[in-house]
Amino acid sequence: MCGRFAQYRIAYEYLDKIGVQLPLPLRGGVNPEPIGRYNVPPRTNAQLIHWDLDGMRIEPVPWGYAPWWAQGKRPPAINARVETAATSKFFRDIWSTGRSIVPADGWFEWKTDEQNPKIKQPYFITLGSGEPMFFAALGQFQRGGMLDPRDGDGFVIITSSSDAGMLDIHDRRPLVLSGECAAHWMDPELSPAEAEELALGHGLGVEEFEWYPVGREIGNVRNEGAALIARIDDPLL
């Protein structure tokens, strides 16, 4: 699962890793300042990289999606399981038209005490290399250069199963792609079947990540700043 993540670098730092070079083949411009978000919660806007009808864009899109026929019946989904997203009635349309990337620097999971579920310790999970990461995502977003979002715009983060030691924290994790695979995932020419093959077989392995305990302040969506990803020495679990 992914219910909170960090997205704090300058947009150019992410774009460079997926092969976007200057002069930028982008539409809509890029903010040269750091994004500076260390506590991105669901139902808020986050920077999303995607292809629009007039070129590649990086822009804020709401984290959460529901198809038109499901809107108002339940809260928007924030995650989609890689094992079923391509064929699920809920996601299959945007599997074809809305493959996108969430650039990120890590995500948070809460480890729960088996004896007392009320005791939870947050962990920050990031790449051991210190490089940016790219979450595979699906979304509905602006088309054809429109400036204003449409009703129903939003995205979900695709998740896969955890393994090895990461299972101790949570059994699901974001599907993280390399820069090369991230660019391929967004390619409008990639067929839905090829995209499914990429998603099922080319996510980064758990050995690429490291994780450590952080303070419980991350649990409050009003908290922000680099201190939220600082390692603590006295975790509850």
From TrEMBL:
GO molecular function: lyase activity; peptidase activity; single-stranded DNA binding
Class of the enzyme per the UniProt entry, highest EC level: hydrolase
Any Pfam family: SRAP
Record keyword DNA-binding present: yes
Enzyme nomenclature, EC number: 3.4.-.-
Domain of life: Bacteria
Keyword vocabulary terms for this entry: Covalent protein-DNA linkage, DNA damage, DNA-binding, Hydrolase, Lyase, Protease
UniProt xrefs under SUPFAM superfamilies: BB1717-like
GO biological process: protein-DNA covalent cross-linking repair; proteolysis
Family: Belongs to the SOS response-associated peptidase family.
PANTHER family per record: ABASIC SITE PROCESSING PROTEIN HMCES, DC12-RELATED
Protein name: Abasic site processing protein
Lineage start: Bacteria, Pseudomonadati, Pseudomonadota, Gammaproteobacteria, Pseudomonadales
